[in-house]
Automatic annotation (TrEMBL):
Source species, domain of life: Bacteria
Residues annotated as transmembrane: 44-63, 137-156, 161-178, 184-201, 221-238, 244-261, 273-293, 349-369, 376-398, 418-438, 445-463
Low complexity composition-biased segments: 17-31
Region (Disordered): 1-31
Keyword Transmembrane: yes
UniProt organism field: Actinoplanes palleronii
Record's protein name: Glycosyltransferase RgtA/B/C/D-like domain-containing protein
Keyword terms, alphabetized: Membrane, Transmembrane, Transmembrane helix
Length: 590
């Protein structure tokens, strides 16, 4: 079943029907119906509210205690909760210190050591302290899932899918099994803006897969809005934002080529909206790149090497490997996961969903999309999968070329995250299948039967998206770090333990030596090696030379334990003090 010419698709939703002359914008239906009622019954409102409600259910028990627990673990979530808090605190109290944070004492550009989530800055202005930091993070964690399903739903609708097909596309994009390998990576979960911006750009240009480019349907304001959403998505981080930027560049180049060949009408208002949008997008990319480029200048060793990328690359088996937190397939995939651990661990457990693959496969045969569009989607999915294997892809010379020639590509550590594009394309192929089946069966079967049939694919995708992620209680600070002489060093200091210290420091943001993120400065590695024998003369002398005034050793360790003698070793002759405070031992270095 090839493309079906039907006006019952997205146009009926995005074009407000009129009771008066065409183009007057008079709403259909009873004029007496209150505006609020019309809003509450609008498809976009229902889709948005439904996305949030579904996210609450699919991430349960997150919202049972969102101020005191983290999904999966409390390591990376602590980092990102600290980032969200730091942005708000720095903007209000010390804007000039924005990129030189309270953590990583003595280092520069420390906020650019990893993706910054800068687009979430307004949330950081609300509340203070570690409890607010945890709650803020979890609310955004929830909205990341809701935004992904809503964005893909809107994109599928704009391209011409019906509601049932768009629902399946949204569910596949938001709840694909691979996403549960990233339950502690808010920057990777936040992909809704990608789909939403594509939908708005398509809407702005009057484009759908069902009807192609229709100049009369163009809406310049939507096009500008699409570029603004794309710019916002970039501010959440370059890990996903950089490939997104190149996808936008490729789509723009294809659109320009189409215009040069076909010369369709293109209004001045749309041209000005696109020009303004592109300039804003490029300016955002440039401004975001500045601190990262300066960080790379300050730390030349921060660029990702091909050897490092190889350690985070996975072969073709990654696409059939479910993470352990996925309920349906995860428990039976342990052998595959173990085999892939040397190839990047959880970063390469990238199953997009067996039901999603099956629906997309059927969508290659039966679809509302044209044969040409289906072939292009299939080729694009294979291309993203191939690049997503990184250095373990067959003929990986292509990836090496991207790493060498594309600006910024050498900052991408994990190629497998391109699975999001494979997932989006699978969702769109599935949406084409469901739409075509609905149109074929309408009038042939009873409406209740048709509704049940169309909801079965959505039910299968939801089943595949059920998670069994453990939720961890967030450890509380053993002592108020802000009450101590600063800078403060908390032991043990390692890649994991320091993440908790950063979260604890959100209570007032005292200066701490600890720090952890995507890049670890050499001086911090040196400090960790030197203080392993603390307290002794060599470590105390080193810390004093670094200007560190207080060392805190919690009684309870959450990573590598502190040697027991740290608490009892004599300090006579070292010129330091030792004091029991809270649930920790505090050493004053004078």
């Amino acid at each position: 079943m090839d493309q079906v010419s039907d006006q019952s698709g997205v146009e009926r939703v995005l074009e407000r029907p009129s009771a008066g002359p065409a183009g007057t914008g008079v709403p259909a239906g009873p004029r007496s119906r209150p505006r609020v009622v019309r809003l509450l019954r609008h498809e976009w409102f229902l889709a948005g509210a439904g996305s949030v409600l579904l996210a609450v259910l699919m991430t349960w028990p997150l919202m049972r205690d969102p101020a005191h627990t983290f999904a999966s673990d409390f390591w990376d979530p602590s980092l990102q909760a600290w980032q969200l808090s730091w942005m708000g605190w720095a903007l209000l109290h010390s804007p000039g210190q924005f990129w030189d944070t309270n953590a990583h004492f003595g280092e520069s550009w420390s906020f650019a050591y990893s993706d910054t989530l800068l687009g979430y800055l307004p949330f950081g202005l609300i509340g203070s302290g570690s409890e607010a930091a945890v709650l803020r993070y979890n609310l955004l964690f929830l909205l990341a899932f809701a935004g992904a399903s809503f964005g893909a739903y809107v994109l599928a609708r704009q391209l011409g899918a019906n509601r049932a097909g768009s629902l399946v596309a949204g569910l596949i994009f938001a709840y694909a099994p691979w996403r549960y390998a990233h339950m502690s990576h808010l920057n990777i979960l936040s992909i809704g803006g990608i789909a939403l911006s594509l939908a708005m750009l398509a809407r702005g240009h009057g484009y759908s897969l069902r009807h192609g480019y229709r100049p009369a349907q163009a809406r310049p304001a939507w096009a500008l809005g699409g570029w603004l959403v794309a710019a916002w998505q970039i501010t959440l981080g370059f890990g996903l934002g950089l490939p997104f930027g190149y996808v936008l560049g490729a789509l723009t180049a294809a659109a320009v080529l189409f215009w040069l060949v076909k010369r369709p009408p293109f209004g001045k208002r749309l041209f000005r909206a696109d020009l303004a949008g592109v300039l804003i997008f490029l300016a955002t990319v440039g401004l975001m790149a500045i601190p990262y480029l300066r960080m790379q200048q300050a730390y030349p060793g921060s660029a990702r090497t091909l050897a490092e990328i190889n350690s985070f690359s996975g072969d073709v088996r990654q696409f059939v490997t479910a993470p352990g937190f996925e309920w349906l397939w995860g428990r039976d995939n342990q052998e595959l996961r173990d085999a892939l651990i040397p190839q990047g661990g959880g970063e390469v457990w990238n199953l997009p969903g067996f039901f999603a693959i099956g629906l997309a496969g059927l969508g290659l045969v039966v679809s509302a999309w044209s044969r040409r569009h289906r072939v292009l989607m299939l080729l694009a999915a294979f291309a993203f999968a191939w690049v997503g294997m990184g250095m373990r892809a067959p003929w990986n010379y292509g990836y090496q070329m991207l790493h060498h020639w594309l600006p910024g590509w050498d900052a991408i550590r994990t190629p497998g995250r391109l699975i999001l594009w494979v997932t989006l394309l699978l969702g769109l192929l599935a949406a084409g299948l469901i739409t075509a089946l609905a149109e074929h069966l309408t009038g042939r079967v009873a409406r209740p039967v048709l509704a049940v049939l169309l909801l079965i694919p959505a039910g299968l995708v939801v089943l595949e998206g059920v998670q069994i992620t453990p939720f961890r209680d967030v450890p509380k600070a053993p002592v108020a770090l802000g009450s101590l002489a600063q800078p403060v060093l908390v032991l043990p200091t390692d890649k994991l333990a320091d993440l908790l210290v950063m979260l604890w420091s959100t209570d007032g943001f005292p200066t701490v030596v600890n720090g952890s993120s995507g890049y670890i400065p050499p001086r911090l590695e040196q400090l960790r090696a030197t203080v392993a024998s603390f307290p002794d003369a060599a470590s105390v002398r080193y810390l004093r030379d670094r200007g560190i005034r207080t060392v805190v050793v919690p009684r309870r360790s959450y990573s590598d334990p502190v040697p027991p003698e740290t608490f009892t070793k004599p300090v006579d002759g070292l010129g330091i003090t030792r004091e029991e405070r809270g649930d920790a031992v505090v050493f004053g270095l004078g």
